[in-house]
Amino acid sequence: MDPRPFTDPLPLAQALMRRASVTPVEAGVLDLAQGELEALGFRVRRYKFGAVDNLYARFGESAPNFCFAGHLDVVPPGEGWTSDPFAPEVRGGMLYGRGAADMKTAIAAMITASKDFIAEGAPRGSISFLLTCDEEGPAVDGTKRVLEALKAEGERIDHCLVGEPTSEDKVGDTIKNGRRGSLNVVLTMEGKQGHVAYPHRAVNPVTPLIEALAALQARELDHGAPGFDASNLEVTSVDVGNAAHNVIPQRATAKLNIRFNTHHSAEKLVEWIEQITAQAAARAGAKASLNVTSRSVAFYTEPGAFTDLLIAAVSESFGHTPVLATTGGTSDARFIKDVCPVAELGLRNETAHMVDEHVAVEDVRTLARCYQAVLRRYFG
After folding, report:
1. Are residue 95 and residue 123 in the same domain, yes or no?
2. For the chain, is the Cβ count within 10 Å smaller at the N or the C terminus?
């Protein structure tokens, strides 16, 4: 038996999950986390920007400052649950409810791991928490704004671990030390409506739109970057909305997404798309416009002492060696990378955002032990 203290994270996880904190509604979930952290001796500051509430807490005064980060907002539950998504239940060793995988359980594991680590003696440095209710939404008034405020106040974070559900087949098999950037763009071509029998009197916007899309897809963006696969562009929709066979339409639109590595920036990619579409429009006598609906940057933490520490903690706790990966969607780590080395480690992502979202109870407990092992190694 391990003689070191261990607090079961399940009760706190369930308490957090009972708060219906659908982005950006706080619903008391940060109040609950604040009470838990203050009871451990953390100094808590709340940051509210617009409709979004955020929390930063710190235990200790000295460096280094190790930060646990994550979000307590969740996506809407949807329909078809076998139990109330905001009344978490344990069935067959599984915890069911919205936020089970993504990622209220990880926050609970981080808090209880910190409690048990502090009970062993004050760390030689500081432990902090950065929690937001704006990760699943626009991510404008959440982590990004808090980091700006902390910088203005002179607060320094040395390393950060985000509790996103990174694991695939078994918990602890994957640590994310990077993520691709993502760019969503809507292209619109404006032409001139007319009769198909008199094309010289009209400007068909479909022709330059197809030409622009073909040129965009023809470019090989890159062959990959350190830690990353090749960037890729996907056309996800082409819309004209023309019910008639004998009418040249006025307007045609297309949606595309680019998942890109560290060879690119969203700004440069937008400039390239603008250039290609403007050239195609000019040749056809049409008018092109772009609407960038979302953009997020790529980030990458070089393998080294920090990732080695995380790998060792996972191996100790789960009994297998994780791989470092940069696959998947985006997370708030893309903002944190500007202030310190950051990585992500959490539960399996298999049921994240799904109806009947669930995780194994023992995985949550082992994750808490793993986070405790991270703290011991970091401050040891």
Report:
1. yes
2. N
Give the number of C-alpha atoms closer than 13 A to the C-alpha of residue 142, restricted to the C-beta side: 27
Query: Cα–Cα–Cα angle for 89, 30, 95, nearest 5°?
Result: 15
Instruction: Give 287: exposed, middle or buried? Use CB within 10 Å, 0-12, 13-18, 19+.
Output: middle
56-70: pLDDT as tens digits: 999 999 999 999 999
- Whether the per-residue pLDDT at 148 is higher than 80: the answer is yes
8 is catalytic: no
Q: Which residues, in sequence order, are CB contacts of 339 under 8 Å at separation 6+?
A: 147, 151, 157, 160
Choosing from 73, 102, 211, 344, the catalytic residue is: 73
Q: Does residue 216 sit in the same domain as residue 233?
A: yes
Range of the domain at 77: 10-179+298-379
Total domains, the chain: 2
* Residue 73 is among the residues annotated as catalytic for this protein: yes
